[in-house]
Amino acid sequence: MNDLRRPQAPFAKEGWDVIDDEVRSVVQQVLAARKIVDFVGPLGWETSALGTGRCTALAAEPSEGVEARLREARPLVELRAPFKLRRSEIDAVARGAKDPDLNSATNAARKIALAEDRAVFHGYKAASIDGICEAAAHKSVQLSGDYENYPGVVARALDSLRNDGVGGPYAIALGHRCYTGLTQTTVGGFPVMAHVLRLIERPAIWAPALEGAVVMSLRGGDFELTVGRDLSVGYWSHTPDEVELYIEESLAFQIITPEAAVPLRYEDAQRRKRRRS
Question: How many angstroms separate the CA atoms of 43 and 47, rounded?
Answer without folding.
Answer: 6
